Amino acid sequence: MSGSHHILIVDDDQRLRDLLQRFLTEQGFRVTSLPDARELARRLERDPPHLIVLDWMMPHEDGIAVCKRLRGGGDRTPIIMLTAKGEEDERIDGLDAGADDYLPKPFSPRELVARMHAVLRRVAEAAPGAPLSTDQPVSFGDCEVNFATRTLTRAGEVQDLTTSEFAMLKVFVTHPHESLSRERLSMLARGKEHEVFDRAVDVQVSRLRKLVEPDAGKPRYIQTVWGRGYVFVPD
Predict the structure, then answer these.
(1) CA-CA distance, 161 to 167, in Å (whole number)?
(2) Which residues contact 187 (CB under 8 A, 6 or more apart)?
(3) In this predicted model, what pLDDT tens digit does every residue of 203-232 receive, in sequence order?
């Protein structure tokens, strides 16, 4: 899985960049790195990566601002955010900015590789031609989910989704009327190698509701099951 994937590391810590470049190269990835985001746009255009490992705290422009800028410009490249302390609010902010995953420092390079594989698997599973849980688009309300093209369309307009958001939406749509605990929802969408972080799940559910619900404050389709988790109730 590693051999054909290009990983871009953006981190101002040269020792960490060198360590990750050496380790990931040994794992079969092709790796490039940048000390900050000033050359990021040019690098993305010239040699687009399959995944970005992005540090939170950097000079000139922090990781959150970079993530928001990329997502705002329509760039859906998967992003794993590195946070200095792993504080809950930092994780939430990273996911809310559009990151696909997060990893608190210090971390094991092996754990980073495991998370990279998990994100890249989700991308591969969502790619055209990949095995699908259903080969027909699923419609509810004025929304349509197409698994083959990995798109959510609402009232005829395509909605922007990160890899993680689409993975969670796919879980809901393929498990209608099933009460899903946060733990099971996280496992199905993100993989068993991830810890269950309730607020992270809640943030992504909140983002999905804004995309699919007529009134996100009074959800009709992605409903809360008090004391347990969530349930998807289609038309």
Answers:
(1) 9
(2) 194, 196
(3) 889 989 999 999 999 999 999 998 888 999
166: buried, middle or exposed (CB in 10 Å: 19+, 13-18, 0-12)? Answer: buried
Residue-wise pLDDT for 101-113, tens only, equals 888 888 899 999 9
pTM value?
A: 0.62
The backbone torsions φ and ψ at residue 20, rounded to the nearest 5 degrees and listed phi first, read -65, -40
End-to-end alpha carbon distance in the chain? 39
Chain centroid offset of residue 195 CA: 15
Map out the domains of the chain with their CATH numbers: 6-126 (3.40.50.2300), 138-232 (1.10.10.10)
Q: Is the dihedral of CA 12, 10, 109, 31 positive or negative?
A: negative
Return the bridge partners of 51, or none. Answer: 7
Residues 6+ apart with CB under 8 A from 226: none
